[in-house]
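Inputs:
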Amino acid sequence: MAEKILMIALSPTMEEGTIVEWHKKEGDNVETGDVICEVETDKATMDYESSQSGTLLRIIKQQGDKARVGEAIAIIGEEKEDITEILKEIENEKINPAPQEKKAKPAEKKQESETVEQKHTKPREEAPPASKPPTKEEKAPPTPGRIKASPLARKKAKEMGVDLRSIRGSGPDGRITVKDIENAKAITPQASLSNETKRIKGGIIPVSTMRATIAKRLSESKFTAPHFSVTISATADRLLNLRESINSKAEKKLSLNSFLIKLSAEALVRHPAILSSWEEENIRLFDTADIALAVALTEGLITPVVRSAESKTISEIDYELTDLIQRAKTSSLTPEEYTQAGFTISNLGSYGVEEFDAIINPPGSAILAVGAIKTEPIYDGETFRPAKIIRLTLSCDHRTIDGALAADFMRTLKAMIEEPAEALI
Amino acid sequence: MAVISYREALNQAIDEEMARDENVFILGEEVGEYNGAYKVSRGLLAKYGEKRVIDTPIAELGFTGIGIGAAIAGLRPIVEWMTHNFAILAMDQVINNAAKMRHMSGGQIKVPIVFRGPNGPAEYLSSQHSQSLAAFWMHVPGLKVVAPATPYDAKGLLKSAIRDDDPVVMLEAELMYSWEGEVPEEEYLIPIGKADIKRQGKDVTLITYSKPLRTVLSVADKLAERGIDAEVIDLRSLRPLDTDTIFASVRKTHRAVVVDEAWPMGSPASFVAYAISRECFDELDAQVEIVTSEDVPMPYNHRLELAVQPSEEKISDAVAKVLYME
């Protein structure tokens, strides 16, 4: 019995695939699990493993052809089998491609009702013939594109999020049964486990106002500002020693972020073009270094701003920052305190992240992503010695900042980190 | 608990009800002097006399009509038909009088009568005496229809039928009269319209009534050896039909096979299958299969006679179909 090999959904979102290459040719023997062809999906090129076995009788979709999910790409069956009927069927499907749930056309309906049979009255061989046993030809033609699945299988598929189009049914005429759904689910990575053994509980979380704001602002930033980033490494030993010696005498320990804000402010004073904002008709240049720090909260993040960091001391910055972070965590910041920064710092160093790209926090044009400080060997011309290395990545809006400007700014910042006294000059 | 035969259980039910209520009496062919064609009324003539145990001529329409008249007049007759095959002659009285009087009198007339006797195929009886007429009775609003398959159910249901104020048709089976089972000494009743789960299971629901129950239970045991856990529902009552029990089981197993000795078209099995398809549509993993007698008059040849009835093999095949094991 010749059967169609259908294009299946090889990715959850795939609606159409392109045949990249056939691994089998007409006349070849195909076993279940054999890769018969490669298919380019919306996501990747995937191997198409056959779930049928037999002889590949006809390739319908040649290399480079596109096929919708559910469309026949080949015919498989027994050697030398007559496939004229099935080809006709495929031809018909091409002429009237039926959406999945399209109702049978009146003509088909009529045929179905004429061929209703009491299957159960089929006599045993030794019994006298009772009602006419149904013959293959009398069977109502399958509605093209319609998926045969038991009602329970449909219900289960919906519950488990399984796409029926991706499953080959094991029941009569390829009907998908509940077992097929369970098996399909069992071999996918997100296998459904009983609640007792579930380690990951999925679900739906309503979007909070904060989440919505983050989503909206960052999408706008990422999709409108052409981002590019530059990364530089700096040796941070001197900065760290300086901080340590100050902190050893001070009552209140100054955070590394306070130092980074101060040094960034000094670098911005030297490269004021970084402190800019794209306003379509104009480019706004800020007149103070208002530097935000990204602070992680359980439900999102917030960017409290230290205003005019260029005219504040590190301890003033630190004092302000401590207060801002504390109030950020209790959601008691006013909008004026966390918006309108000209520059932002995001530090993931405490997580051990070495370097990363951040998304620009508008209206600013640049954000500094700070990685972890790692001890690495460096070569000083004669010998290797250990050094504390910090990697900094600046993401910039190319509408206002060009590569050379970003690189120049980073060179200055690196110099200040490596020799903090540079900031005083 | 005493182990007694099905016929003995029926005899106890009639005896107890006749002793309890003097309005209860039995009439029919051979119920008195001969002690019943199948010995169900053994000893009753000697105990209650010929006013309450009445031998009738061979005239089903006549004595069934007399019974219905007596019921309308306030007595509680039990009409024994030697077999349901002969009751075809009495159908006019049952369908047009017994089943309709309460409705047509606006509830003023009640017809508390029981019609009982063997139904369905037995052995070597050929076409005219080997048919299940369950569907004919089940079809009629105004009648109640019971079909117990064990001595326990037979006694409890017959007692309920005698006490019921509506006409009740009871389906027995010749081959079941000698079947034995446990029946308690103390009095009990089984409500009409309640199915009984004869075997708990989770993989497939097998629904039947009357004589095929034994075959179905035997199939269930053999399926268990193959790791298939079948639930067996004995309908016991065909009208009213205990759909709650059926649906609850199918919602659990997702598959159903209905086994029935009647012919397929318009059979009790076909109605049960329809009800399941309608109410449990989203719970079904396969079509509902029915296993009935073949759609032919009963052959006399014994091999053919066996071949046209529901068999263990046919039931197993149907189970394999709904479990996709073919």
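The longest helix of chain B spans residues 6-20. Flag for discussion at group meeting.
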